[in-house]
Amino acid sequence: MQKIQEQISNEFLTRLKGSQDFSDEMIEKLRELLVKGEKLKAEEIEKIFSDEENGALK
Amino acid sequence: MIKLESAHIEWARGIARNLDIDFQRQNFSISGPNGSGKSAVIDAIEFALTGQIGRLSGSGTKGLSVSEHGPHVDKVKFPDASFVELKIYIPDLAKSATITRKFKTPSKVEISPSDDDIEAILKEVSVHPEIALSRRDIIRFILVESGKRSTEIQALLKLDRIGDTRRTLNTVYKRLRTKNNNAEANIISASDTLKLHLQVEDLTSETLLDIVNNNRKILDLTKINELKPETKVDEGIANVPKINEFNKESALRDINALIEMTNDFQDFCAVEIAEIISKLAKLESDPSLLSILKKQSFIETGIDFLDGPECPLCDIPWEDEDTLRRHLESKLTKSKDAKLISDSLSSLASKISLSLINILGFISPVKNLAIAENDTDFSDSLSKWETDLNDLKSKFIDTSGLFFIKNRLLSGLIKPPSSISFNLQSLYNKVEGKPDQSATVSSQTFLTTTQLRLDDHRKTIRVKEKTSAAENRAKIAYDLYCSISENSLNKLYREVETDFSIFYRQLNENDEETFTAKLIPSEAKLDLDVNFYDRGLFPPGAYHSEGHQDGMGVCLYLALMKNLFGDRFTFALLDDIVMSVDSGHRYEFCKLLMNHFRDTQFIITTHDRLWAEQMKSAGLVSSKTSIAFYSWTIDTGPLVDSNKGIWEEISLALEKGKVEIAASSLRHHLEYSSRHLADQIGANPQFRSDGNYDLGDLLPSVIGRMKKLLGKAADAAQTWDDDEQKQAAIKLKNALSSCSGASAVEQWAVNKAVHYNEWTNFGKKDFEPVVVSFRDLIERFRCEKCDSWIYITPKRGPLESLRCSCSKINFNLKIV
User: Fold this and answer.
1) Which chain B residues are within 8 Å of A16, Cβ to Cβ?
2) Are B473 and A4 in contact (CB < 8 Å)?
3) What was the ipTM of the complex prediction?
4) Which of B52, B218, B267, B533 fits as disulfide partner to B443, beta carbons 3.0 to 4.6 Å?
5) CA distances (Å), B132 to each of B43, B321, B604, in order?
6) Do B488 and A7 touch (CB under 8 A)?
7) pTM for this predicted structure
8) Which tens digit of pLDDT belongs to each residue from B794-816?
């Protein structure tokens, strides 16, 4: 049986993919964090949403 | 998931030496009086599978641990001797495996064969301690406040990660919103300093270009027609001799602006500061509110950093991460008032923080002027002031920060360097005293300063674009995750409540046929309401009896497990929870397990021997898949009651001269047998309202009842002209009389010397014949062929027969 949190994560990522605000790269990084099954770290998500690869926020 | 084939337990909990049980992948019952070691078996299995023991964790178990208190008490100092070995079967893989876990190293497990797929399944099992359910667990689901029920059920269904993710996404959203607000304030600050330099009220491309082009004209530079993001307003200056000076007029304006600002520091954010001071005073007047609030961000930080059972705030180890998380979360949800005050303080603090950013924007150009004028003392003091204000800004984030600067709020917040007015005036005079710049120099320095401030302004806009996009992403992600998880959880709760209602209706067939239940999730809560005889929905504790509430607990557990594992729910340990089902519904409980959980192996313990027999007669377990413990000692561990083994155990004890052990074993076996037989043949011992019948009550009554039944069987056979049956009944009756005479049961009431209480004082030679006579007596109640106890049918109403399971003994009791 697929765990409910996995179902939620999959639907979450699929629907984010449909949003123009998120690049494929961002979604892939989010997926990597979510599939780990470990507790998410705010700093890591913050980095992804801030798109820091393309210039850090100050 | 798994099924259990067998267990070998050595020196674990209440099990001394070793105990082997053959579970045969079947439902299995372990019965025995309280303290006979049943739960030790459950603990050992749970330990082998998960490395944990439920009863050594949770509230009220502080100071207890598996490694220290898991081994038998005599092996605490030799934990190497304590281990559990399970042979398991994995239906999904059609493979068997052996798991061995030692109490010395609870987190290490040996798995053989160490196939990846086997290890993966066992790893999954190891994070599901809920496979073991005890009575206190049942209470967790039913008779708890809704907030706690939500936490318990979410933990059971492994939904806590969903809550974690929601919280983390919310934290990210809040952080990025703050960054975006600060970015907005930085734009305003950069815009203000640029406007000050340009001497304009409104900053537009047109006004900026007008001013810039006027200065470029003086320098004979080309006109700029359009202000693009990459436009450099000082472009071309490199072609004219560059003057390394600041623009005098602009510098004077910068200094003046800061002078004016310092004059207003007395009134800096006066309204907001007054409100903050008032709210802080209110909090201080209510110590409980204050306590919650003071710790709020501390605890929130702690929750964010949770990663294992060790508290990130104080390093104290907890039983597990879930328990620690629940502890911290309960602190956060204690007061709504505290949250309201906290939100209001955050809003006020945010306004002040933005004003501080504005001040910082005006300090920077003056500091650069002081450096340019080699006024080191003043530039250093301005640098320190900048640092101080940046530090102060960081306190305007949460309530604990505001408390930290409370005195400063009261005594003056901004605290410029003590001689700032003098120094600013001196710097102003110094700059003003410089000869007026030529038009060329003035235009040149004006344009370079404009470009610098324009660069700053553009940079703040670029940052804002990014922070705005980041905040937007965080909001979309948080809202979306909340919406999806809420829908999924609502769907899950509907399925759980449906299954729960079906199970409970089956358990209470002919009683609550219209029973329904409703799980109502709300923020951090999960209310449970149940239908009470069609009079409406109420909390379980409102009208239902305790027995019914316990039944609900079991049904809710089963519904949760079904939804957690689906068709992979193949194994569960039910530790004395079936006692929660009242006697009138036990058969239905067995049917519930057999009908709805055909592929699940239940290991069930009960301290009620009758319950154990009822499980057999309902077909849930068989005599091959059940064992009974009749007693326990610290040296022997559980003493297993078996049809034949008991007599061997007694003989062995006697051989070793241990009369007291033999006497104790005999007495326990007779108590168990008599109690069971009293139920099997409908004996009528003197009624006791507390149900505490001892051997002296039961055995004589059982013998008397059997003799009467055999007499009735002989009479009935007579009416049927069945001489063979008549003789068989008389023969058995006579044998019984002879054995009971030898055992002196009938003299217990009058002759103290033969009473079973005196057995422990007997010598070996005296006690041996006692054992023989009781063995003969008890075996008369059992079929030689099938080994089953003799029983009557039906149990209620006119008697029809006295028989055994295989019908070798089958006396007709109906008289023609």
Assistant:
1) 476-477, 480
2) no
3) 0.94
4) B218
5) 9, 19, 10
6) yes
7) 0.62
8) 877 889 999 987 788 999 999 87
